[in-house]
Specification:
By secondary structure, the protein is α/β, with parallel strands linked by helices. The protein has two domains: about 140 residues, no CATH class; about 130 residues, no CATH class. The protein has 13 helices and eleven strands. The strands form two sheets. Strands 1-2-5-6-7-8-9-10-11 form a nine-stranded mixed β-sheet, with helices on one face. The chain has a two-stranded antiparallel ribbon with strand order 3-4. The longest helix is centred in the C-terminal third of the chain and has 18 residues. The chain is globular, with a radius of gyration of 19 Å. It starts with 13 loop residues before the first strand and ends with a helix.
Amino acid sequence: MKILDRTGDQYKIIKHERDYAENLCIVGVEPYEKCGFRCFYCITDSQGKTRPIEPDLASFQKRFLAELADFESDRYLFGVSLATDSYNDIEEEWGYTRWVIEELTRRNRRYSITTKSPLVTRDIDLFQQMAPDRYKVIISFTASTTELANAVEPQAPSPESRMEALHTLHNAGVNACVLMAPWIPGITDTDRLLSLFPKGIAVFFQPVELGDDFEEVLDQQRPHFSASLFMGKEWTQNEINRAYIRECNTVGKKYWKDFNMEWRHPITLETHADRSGYLKKMRPGRYDPDQWVSEHPVIPARERR
């Protein structure tokens, strides 16, 4: 595997620093470049052949520890592989994610992991060493069956294997959560998924975000993704937001007492720009779908010119 020796901020292991609150700054730890799962809807520009950011483990460890010294405050939460999957298709061979978790655990540093891979159960022994409020292991779902998921993430591990991993983590006492993001109308079968999750866990929702300032295009970043291809019709962000609020008001209400649910705000131009929707949440029945969309219309770039 040939990897060039590159320097500069864009090639750091710890990056993507973003402040969310006075006591919360999320920073990304990126042991790998690109992601072989190649989910069609991904907006991180990370699809491609997975490779370690540093091909020599000793060099990677030295670089990571040197960078970690700049983030001593407990206000930092380390998101392991924010731009890719923490347990990607080569992690079992290379083991960089496990080594990072070992180091963060040894220092009692806060971290979160988001993955679609059942390989995450390999590291239960590490998770059990941390207090539950110091970490999160988040399993990502867009659908409950392989048949549905194959429309948007055919190279990712199956939803069935993820569901089994989620229950294994939960039964082992791990602080395991679920991320239903992107929530996709016509693909995400929310009712069935919630009926299968372990009761009482945290479940986070966020709707799919159309690209290029809300004009879905077949571009270099998401070459296989378009609203018209996988949904059977051309959706706008307004229509997606309306369907998402409706789902919160109906299915969200049905399961509200069974889970610690966070329905993050629908996508708007403002939250698209500053990611503030991460902290804004809604409850079932709080918004009327039609009224909310009329008051927060998302206007595609071509119509704003």
